[in-house]
Amino acid sequence: MLILNRNIIEFKNVNYSYNNDSLQINDISFAVSKNERIGIIGANGAGKSTLLKLLLGLIKPTSGDIIFNNEIIDKKNLKMVRKKIGYAFQDPDNQLFMPTVYDDITFTAKQEKKTEEECFNIANKVLRDIDALYLMDKTPYKLSGGEKRLASLAVALSNNPEVLVLDEPTVGLDPRSRRKLIKLLNKRKETFLLTTHDMDMAYEVCGRIIIFFNGRLIADDSVNNIFNNEELLTTSHLEMPLQLQYSKNNR
What we know:
By secondary structure, this protein is of the alpha/beta class. Helices cover 36% and strands 25% of the residues. It has a domain at 37-53 and 92-249: P-loop containing nucleotide triphosphate hydrolases (Rossmann fold, 3-Layer(aba) Sandwich), CATH 3.40.50.300.
């Protein structure tokens, strides 16, 4: 079904429950415009990862619609939608399963019968774009946590997606790898959504923040308005980014 608007993604009154139990996602509505950089934050169990699974069609809403590029996501268009969304798993080990990083990046291209030259060009471009060409022939299980995260990001970018989805991208990263990831994300042009407990990273790379609490969307505003609202953060069981705390304490 075609729905004409300018949003690339839209959740309309989406609910989700597991086995008809209590709602894990409760009447969620929001829209994402092209080139927006959105951070989805909330305490453990707030519904952040469930939301991403709904967007990717890994689970189906109990009710409501999820719209991508003006079409309600359903069985008929799910495969097409997934090609346009690059998803980096929370645990890179669940995404890297081939003998080399090159093989992981080109897995989908090879399934689509692309030539070896086309496959090489895809891997070369995505690794060059994230300054990680040296990973091309590496064995994934031998990589450091930061290198695995880069390889996972390269896999997510391999289809030249319209939207990049990142689930807890800084989990397990050392400070140097974390800084590199933040720098890379700030260079990217794609629309992206990320879930995170890393408030400082969200403050640095996102323009808009959505807060989930007990399966509900309780706030949706600019990054500055959200992170300067101490009462809202306290109610949501969240912390102000350290750099903002430092700034306030030294005024």
